[in-house]
Write a structure and sequence with these properties.
With about 600 residues, the protein is an alpha+beta fold. Among the domains are: about 70-185, 2-Layer Sandwich (Beta-Lactamase); about 190-285, Beta-Lactamase (2-Layer Sandwich); about 445-605, Histidine kinase-like ATPase, C-terminal domain (Heat Shock Protein 90, 2-Layer Sandwich), CATH 3.30.565. It is built from 14 helices and 18 strands. The protein has helices at about 1-10, 10-65, 65-70, 75-80, 85-100, 135-145, 185-195, 280-410, 410-440, 450-460, 465-470, 490-505, 560-570, 600-605; strands spanning about 105-110, 115-120, 150, 165-170, 175-185, 200-205, 210, 230-235, 245-250, 260-270, 275-280, 450, 475, 485, 515-520, 525-530, 575-580, 585-595. The strands form 4 sheets. It has a 6-stranded antiparallel beta sheet. It has a 5-stranded antiparallel beta sheet with strand order 2-1-5-4-3, sandwiched between helices. The structure holds adenosine-5'-diphosphate (ADP). Adenosine-5'-diphosphate (ADP) binds near residues 503, 561 and 587. Adenosine-5'-diphosphate binds near residues 536, 537, 558, 563 and 564.
């Protein structure tokens, strides 16, 4: 499909090229033909020149003989004395010797009557002796005192020896007394013509072939087309060479198919003949055709090379265009992508700006919230503290006023009673103040190996009065005697007092209230558990109970610092504290501390 369209588009070009090739081929053929014909003509020229030399030499050799022979006195004498047979025999011998010496076929002497009176072939059976040759042209010519010439083609049936005869008058004084004839053998001459690669023949002034290597041609006439098969085709000769023409003629002796020849002819002036040469043009034509084929091949190769170059150029151009198109597409893509990136970048920048603003807002809000939180804590704290301090202060004031009144009324015992109440109240306030001071703890205070048994004993001693009042005995479990933790005596005691105090609060007024304290040692840790069977700490409040000022107790009973302080102390020890469900449903506070000497060390000793 594509090829057809392609061809259609290029049809005029293809036709033009084909025409050009055809024209160039014909022109090449014509030029080559001309060139090779000229070379052939040169060769024919050389060849015919050689043949002419040969023929002229042959003619020259025999033409002079009769005039030379005629001068011999024996010849004229034999003519003068025709009856002297001895003389005639001598002349015959003389002629035989001369003929042999000069290569003439025969020579003979004829009297005025035309009778042969002496002959070189006197010894032959069919000798010419005594024959009458009167009336033959050469006899007539010679009788008129000139050199006579005549062909003798033998008998009518083509038998007998063929010859060209030269005749010359033999004179006695100034008168012609007879004729001497020299026969030149034409067979040998024709044989040489036959051996020539070209067809060589001779015509006389009437256009009749008189000498030819081909017997069939002999005695045919050039003028007679029917008899002579050589017909002119065209006269192409216009060069510096002698005239030549193309003719068709017999191929060779065996083949009668007509062939083309180049015909050249030169005159043989002495005899009034023309020497002809027919050179075959086949080779020259073949060479011209080969040259044309060569030229066509060269043109085809050149055409192919040009076509290849053009195709390659077109492919390169197409590739270049494709690459340019790709480049443009790529550029478009890049610019589109760049624009998209720019937009995304702007969006991102906007987002960053928004985020920064939001972050600033958040930070401001957080700061505000912290502030609010601080204020809330401060509020809780001040409320709790004011209650905690106001109550004893109000009591102290009324006790002081009462003491003052009792002193005035002179009731010192009662006044002292009030004063000791004031002392207890101030002691309680001092205790509260210490708790607050403890809250502002100093973390990293030195740790020491602390005997858990000793600390438990002291804490229980201090709580003895409260425990007795509540009627609760703390149940101990575990190997207290060997439990030694990394802690501080007073602070760990504080922790235990807080936890047991809270358990007492939680189980206050409860029938069958129970509190357990047990210890467990692992390889690395000492674990203390304080459990009760009170209401426990609900799951959702378990994180909150360690916050400062978190309390569920009534005013004057707790300010929510106990667990917070406990948490801080345990954390300072490097331990942990958590609240869980107790074994009987109450709360269980679990304190985990580092073991004073890890088990591995103990084992190592
Ligand atoms: P306070 O004892 O002054 O209330 P704490 O910090 O010691 O402050 O305790 C905070 C709160 O944790 C208590 O008010 C109580 O609600 C709860 N709590 C502490 N121990 C127990 C316990 N053993 N059983 C139930 N609730 C407890």
């Amino acid at each position: 499909m594509f090829r057809l369209r392609h061809l259609k588009r290029n049809l005029p070009l293809t036709l033009g090229l084909l025409t050009l090739v055809a024209v160039l081929s014909i022109a090449t053929f014509k030029a080559a033909e001309r060139y090779f014909f000229e070379r052939l003509a040169e060769r024919a020229e050389t060849s015919i020149a050689l043949q002419r030399e040969n023929l002229n030499g042959w003619l020259g050799r025999f033409r002079a003989l009769p005039s030379v022979f005629a001068r011999h006195p024996d010849l004229s004498r034999a003519l003068r004395y025709p009856d002297d047979f001895e003389l005639r025999d001598r002349v015959s011998l003389l002629l035989e010797r001369w003929s042999f010496a000069t290569g003439a076929q025969e020579s003979f002497l004829v009297n005025l009557d035309g009778q042969v009176i002496a002959s070189s072939d006197w010894s032959d059976r069919d000798t010419l002796l005594n024959r009458n040759v009167s009336g033959t042209p050469q006899h007539m010519e010679a009788l008129q005192g000139r050199l006579g010439r005549q062909f003798d083609y033998g008998d009518a049936d083509g038998q007998g020896e063929r010859a060209y005869q030269f005749s010359f008058p033999v004179r006695i004084g100034t008168g012609v007394a007879g004729v001497i004839v020299v026969r030149a053998d034409i067979d040998r001459l024709e044989e040489e013509m036959r051996l020539s690669p070209d067809e060589v023949f001779v015509t006389d002034r009437d256009g009749v072939v008189v000498l030819s290597g081909q017997p069939a041609l002999r005695l045919t006439s050039l003028a007679d087309d029917a008899r002579f098969p050589v017909t002119p085709v065209a006269n192409l000769s216009d060069g510096p060479l002698s005239a030549w023409e193309l003719v068709t003629g017999p191929a060779d002796r065996s083949d009668s198919a007509p062939r083309e020849f180049m015909h050249v002819a030169v005159p043989i002036a002495t005899e009034g003949w023309r020497l002809h040469l027919l050179a075959q043009t086949g080779t020259a034509r073949t060479q011209a055709v080969l040259a044309m084929i060569g030229a066509v091949l060269v043109m085809l190769v050149l055409g192919l090379v040009v076509a290849l170059i053009l195709m390659r150029r077109r492919t390169l151009l197409q590739r270049l265009t494709a690459r340019e198109r790709e480049g443009r597409l790529l550029e478009q893509k890049v610019s589109a992508r760049t624009a998209a990136l720019k937009t995304a970048n702007q969006r991102l920048e906007q987002e960053v700006r928004d985020r920064t603003a939001a972050e600033a807002e958040l930070r401001r809000t957080q700061a505000e919230m912290v502030q609010v939180g601080k204020m809330a804590v401060l509020g809780q704290m001040s409320t709790a503290l004011s209650h905690e301090f106001n109550q004893p202060l109000t009591a102290i004031r009324s006790y002081a006023e009462n003491a003052d009144a009792f002193i005035e009324r002179d009731l010192p015992v009662k006044a002292r009673e009030n004063l000791s109440r004031i002392q207890r109240l101030t002691a309680r306030m001092a205790q509260l103040s210490r708790s607050l001071a403890n809250f502002a703890r100093k973390p990293g205070e030195g740790l020491e190996d602390t005997s858990v048994a000793k600390v438990v004993e002291e804490a229980l001693g201090l709580l003895e009065a409260r425990l007795d009042r509540a009627g609760v005995t703390v149940e101990l479990g575990g190997d207290f005697a060997n439990a030694v933790a990394r802690a501080g005596d007073i602070r760990l005691q504080h922790v235990l007092m807080n936890l047991i105090g809270n358990a007492l609060d939680a189980t206050e007024g409860q029938d069958g209230a129970r509190i357990w304290l047990d210890v467990e040692q692992t390889a690395q840790s000492v674990i203390l558990r304080v459990s009760d069977n009170g209401p426990g700490v609900p799951e959702q409040l378990r994180a909150q109970v360690f916050d400062p000022f978190y309390t569920t107790k009534d005013v004057g009973r707790g300010i929510g610092l106990g667990l917070s302080i406990t948490f801080n102390i345990v954390t300072d020890f490097g331990g942990t504290i958590r609240v869980d469900d107790g074994p009987e449903g109450g709360a269980m506070f679990v304190v985990t501390l580092d073991r004073a000497r890890p088990l591995a060390d103990v084992a190592a000793q």
